[in-house]
Amino acid sequence: MEVVRDRSALRIARADLPGPVGFVPTLGAIHAGHESLLRRARDENASVVASLFVNPLQFRPGEDFERYPRDEPGDLERFAAAGADVVFAPDVSAVYPSGFTTSVDVGPLGAVLEGSVRPGHFRGVATVVTILFGLVRPDRAYFGQKDGQQAIIVERLVRDLALFVEVVVCPTVREPDGLALSSRNVHLTPEERRAAPVLVRALSRVDEAYRSGERDAERLRQLIREEIASEPLASLEYASVADRETLQELQVVDRGALVSLAVRFPSTRLIDCLPLA
Ligand code: AMP
Q: Which of 2, 67, 164, 213 has its Cβ near the most Cβ atoms within 10 Å?
């Protein structure tokens, strides 16, 4: 496995790779969720490129950029074990050269849900993904369902800007108690860790109600609010049942929907989601 640190080294390494090329972008702190993406990329492509970059553009001042978990040596071992051929692990100036001014605005999709709590987040995501796609020129790129809004935005970005990358969305990998794996789970105190499956319980209640025929989106959102309210350590930031294409809130679930929520614990915030139909 080759580790490259700047744009030109990546271009050179990429030129030698047999296609098709699968690409897995990450912020690092690699866990089994990331590994599932890498394995899928390995299965479906002749070559696998991964990136390891905590992108400052997608964090706002006051968010957790500084304390985002970082373990490059451990991450590189995991990338190698999962079969990556090339890992792009740049520093900030290698991704954003001096004088950098361009950004990619994803419009209304980036203003709702995570974007409403984290303004500018998806502009940062879309900008770095566009740069990375330009450098790696992957045939397929792998994203997790865990970050459902991000996957929808990347699909939109690829269509709108004609980037000719197949976006593959992979299922959320969970702990035995249902908690979605996330790099941020390490911040949870033992007490918060015990409380954290409240997110997946809320999603399961929506799923059960939907399967029993409930189509009133407000009632489904109310189930999430009730479940989160039952956990004293958790405070709900948003509960959403939205159109899977536009991410606008639904009144009636009469088409593909994304159920999502964000919950703040004293130590960190967690998100989870579930596609319906
Ligand atoms: P991150 O490093 O958190 O930006 O994640 C990199 C990629 O891994 C993103 O496409 C995430 O959606 C995906 N991912 C993160 N957690 C999980 C998980 N528990 N299951 C599946 N994919 C995940």
A: 2
Kindly report whether the global pTM for this prediction surpasses the value 0.70. yes
**Extended beta strands in 104-139, E state:** none
| C-alpha 34 – ligand 1 centre gap (Å) | 5
pLDDT in tens, 204-233: 999 999 999 999 999 999 999 999 999 999
Does 147 contact ligand 1 (Cβ within 6 A)?
A: yes
Q: Where are the domains of the chain?
A: 2-170, 183-276
**Is residue 34 annotated as a catalytic residue, yes or no?**
yes
Give yes or no for residue 149 CB within 6 A of ligand 1: no
Most distant CA pair in the chain, distance: 56
CB of 182 closer than 6 A to ligand 1?
yes
Q: What are the CA-CA distances from residue 182 to residues 85, 122, 193, 200 (Å)? A: 24, 18, 12, 13
What is the structure's pLDDT at 277?
81
Residue nearest to atom 5 of ligand 1 (CA): 26
CATH 3.60.15.10 correct for 183-276: no
Using a 6 Å cutoff on CB, does residue 36 contact ligand 1? yes
Please count the other Cβ atoms lying within 10 Å of the Cβ belonging to residue 22: 28
